[in-house]
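Entry:
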Amino acid sequence: SMPSEMLIKIFSYLDAVSLLCVGCVNKHFYHLANDNGIWLKIYSSRFQPKRAIWKMKSEQTETVSLDCAALHDRKPGYWKKEYIFKQIAAVKSRVMRLVKAVDPYTGLPCKNKEAMKASGLSWIIVLQDKNGKEHVMEKANLSFKDTSVTILWYSTNWPCLDILLTLKLFGVMPLLPDQSRDPSKNGPRRRSLIAEYHLANLTESSVAVGADKLVQLFSLNPGLLVGLWKEKNEIAFVMVSLHYHQLLERSTLGSATVQYALPPNKPVLDDGDPEYGLHDYSLHLDMHGGSCTYLCGTFKSLFCRKGDIANGYLRLTVVSLKDNTKHLPLIGTLGLSWETDVFKGNVKDCYVMDVTLLDETGKPFWCFSAPVYMELSSKVSSLYDYMGHIYTTDYADSEGKVCVELVWLEETEEYFIVNLVLYVSTRKVNNWYGTNY
């Protein structure tokens, strides 16, 4: 029953974030909170206008009157939209400045972490049950590596696994980032859908990657790991590994319902020749298990000849059994660390693999971050230098495969990578270069 003029006067004392929030109360508040007079004042205090829109008294800095044309010739909400668009553009400009510098080893921006902080970017998961109810999990622990970020959610209030249908992963950004304070989860934000996973019959439809005394791990592509309590078969935690390549785009440019579609590569003339295969490729490989890094290395001058093309794949040999000078030791015993409010543990023989494959121009060609596991092979090492059990790790997606062979040395208690091969899909290569392998 309060007069609209009085409400507008009250609203004029609010900042932009509070004004957007109060506009969500009801339709009446929404229309009043769109008032051009309020938003023009907010816009003017934040951005220097191209033309003078106020008159100043001598020796005073307060606004005394606003240009009538700037108010009455505009539709309601015009200055609100202008302010929001200008704020988003300012944030994008800050982020773009940070991601310009590129690491020569990874081919990725050097300041990914700083860019994400500048944008106010965070991630949430939304669980939907059979009744259509959504359960939003906000709080997460972040672990940054050279080429990826690992996000861990844990809670004491997970919904029952039996009633869950889907899990959606979103990038979340404040609509109006404030560099002076952390973004509030109650403030206006926008979501960008990164991936959607189906949780119905999780234990049957996903890959079991390992277990310890308390939890069992199940993996879903791309990069999702669900930890279930062994005794109760309920969710203990959810872990996601996201590669930095195009992470900002996927986390910010999609909508709440549609994932961001990556633009196609524009091939350089004659940069792919089916007769000679691929050449001068580089690989940056990270193997880690949460807080521990087991391997971080860069491999240059990788190539593939015509004879290395078979069964729809091009083979890039990184480490060969025959060349023991390139065999690599791993630091520590492989395992994936996890934690909850009460418990923590380490699942042996599991880890996160980050692959960054660069083409001959140094452009990221195939990138992923995913949880993987080791399996004991039935064969025994025949290499003179390595007498021990052989383990294998295999990863595959629509763009290619990675095959790793490791030997465990009992004497020194360490793993050695003795074979590492990448298989890149010919379809991926043809789409990249516009050729026909």
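Residues 135 and 159 are 8 Å apart (CA to CA).
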